Amino acid sequence: MIGFDLVSKRYEGGHQALTDVSFHVDAGEMAFVTGHSGAGKSTLLKLLAMIERPTNGVVTLDGQKLNTVRPGDIPRIRRKLGMVFQDHRLLLDRTVFANVELPLIIGGVAPADRGRRVRAALEKVGLLSYEKQLPEALSTGEQQRVGIARAIVAKPAVLIADEPTGNLDPQLAMEIMTLFAEFQAVGTAVLVASHDLMLIKRMKKRVVVLDHGKLVADVPATEVV
Amino acid sequence: MNAVRDTRKAPEQPEKTRRSEPRKVGAWREHHLWSMSISLRRLGTRPLGTLLTVAVMGVALALPLTFYLLLGNVQRMGDALGRNQSISAFMKPGQNAAMAETAASALRGRPEVADIVVRTPKDGLAELAEVQGFSGALQSLDANPLPYVLSVQPKPGLSAEDVSRLVESMKATPGVDMVQDTGAWRQRLDALVGVGGRAVALLALLLGIAALLVVGNTIRVDIQSRSAEIGVLLLIGASRPFVRRPYLYAGIWLGFLAGVLAVVLAVVLELAMAGPVGRLAAAYDGSVSFGGLPAWLLLSVPFASAVLGWLGARLVSARQIRRAAAG
């Protein structure tokens, strides 16, 4: 589902963010990407989200090579991705419902289906009763869960998250990771960038470790202790 | 959170179905409906800014409408007052009634002529006698020195060239000594109205460009203030046309509302002028009437203005969204 084959990324300023990184994440698999700050975790997700293009190597998503995607096709491919950001990036002038509904509007889902699917997504993250609230009225954890509802509402084939628990207390962080694991269980490929080693250990999922842009370890879920 | 999550349903499998063709059409329509409503809501969330933009545009568009109204009424006034302006042909001394009638008959056949009245020397003398101070002088005359006069009434709406041609033909009519065209001022007025009409058209063009720039600037500022939102929309799969559409609709709404305001202002001015013009009409025995703006113009202004708004938004939105996305 997700493929990185000998992927390197050098930014215009000369910074080498990634060097010959190769790994694959299958449908129904969940993997953490970890490493210290500046290890290349975010760059990896940016390549997947087509915010950046690799300098070398091939990035694939659902069998499609992202290196050669025409700009006009990027929105269609991005709709296969559900993205969760550390700062949740909600639209603060719209209600929780309207925020979660956005990917469905973009995807052209019929209005009759939208309400049902938005409420189902909000129910999954435990925020159904908050649908008419503005994001600013919610706590950081609740805002993050709205961000997750927005990422999953269109039932994406791939869920990627960049430090999704960075602002949350350990209990909330664990609950959100459990939520991600539930999506993995129904066939979604989940890739989470995180530097929270305690959380990663508790989740017992595959761990890809980056150091200075190089893949230094790829630990299967069964070997995580 | 746990208490709430206990009632949660299990996640559904990722969606793999593609949109069918009818859904694509439906989605396109829904995107437009969504863009229309979201743009209107956004304008509503900043009422002062919207009001100011609409007011500036509305006043700019009302100005040419008002000038058009004034010009139209000057033209109507000229037409109305000029309607009774006849051209006088003075017969040569010694011409009798039969000769005057022959000349009148010759002129009646011309297409420019509405009516001809033959005024006898006796009629002329009687008219002069009514003028204060003349009656005493006229009594001292041995004989009536006045000639026969053909009072020719041109058809309404004649061009200056037609009137000029009629005057020449009257001069060439046998027995006619002199022709006096008291309606020459109409030609000058027509020329002035022509200049005014061109000035109004140029003014409308300039103010239309100004309105377009006002919308463009409003949309530019709006896009700048929403650059973070644009970034999020693009990241979650929105295409640039999808992101751009609400801003184009915002331009259309602003233009349409400004057009409606311009029409309201023009109608208010029209009503304000109706009273004084009515009094003027009474002074001219009702021959002058006030003409309002035509219905087709009033109805078309909001739509033409909406097109201007769309153009203004289109002018800036693509570039600004590209910049916002890059940021």
In short:
Chain A: Residues 2-225 form the ABC transporter domain. Chain A has 225 residues and is an alpha/beta fold.
Question: Helix and strand layout, with pairings?
Answer:
The complex is a heterodimer of chains A (225) and B (327).
Chain A (H helix, E strand, L loop, with lengths): L1 E9 L5 E10 L4 E5 L6 H8 L7 E6 L2 E2 L8 H5 L2 E4 L11 H11 L4 H14 L15 H13 L5 E5 L7 H16 L3 E5 L3 H7 L2 E6 L2 E6 L6
Parallel strand pairs in A: 3-8, 3-9, 6-7, 7-8
Antiparallel strand pairs in A: 1-2, 1-4, 4-5, 9-10
Helix pairs in contact in A: 3-4, 3-5, 4-5
Chain B lengths: L1 H4 L15 H25 L1 H36 L4 E5 L5 H12 L4 E7 L1 H10 L4 H5 L9 E6 L5 H12 L4 E6 L2 H42 L1 H9 L4 H44 L11 H32 L1
Antiparallel strand pairs in B: 1-3, 1-4, 2-3
CATH superfamily of the largest domain in chain A: P-loop containing nucleotide triphosphate hydrolases
Return Rg of chain B in Å. Answer: 35 Å
Question: What is the highest CATH level, the class of the largest domain in chain A?
Answer: Alpha Beta
The SSE string of chain B, one letter per element, is HHHEHEHHEHEHHHH
The largest sheet of chain A, given as strand count, sense and whether it forms a barrel, is: 6 strands, mixed
- What percentage of amino acids of chain B are in beta strands? 5-15%
Strand order within the widest beta sheet of chain A: 6-7-8-3-9-10
CATH hierarchy: architecture of the largest domain in chain A: 3-Layer(aba) Sandwich
Q: Between the first and last Cα atoms of chain B, what is the distance in angstroms?
A: 36 Å
Quaternary status: heterodimer
Which fold does the CATH topology of the largest domain in chain A refer to?
Rossmann fold
- Backbone structural class of chain B: alpha+beta
Averaged pLDDT of chain B: 84
Range of helix content of chain B: over 70%
- Count of extended strands of chain A: 10
Helix residue percentage of chain A: 25-40%
Transmembrane segments (chain B): 48-71, 195-216, 247-273, 293-313
Region (Disordered) (chain B): 1-24
Function (chain B): Part of the ABC transporter FtsEX involved in cellular division.
Domain FtsX extracellular (chain B): 87-179
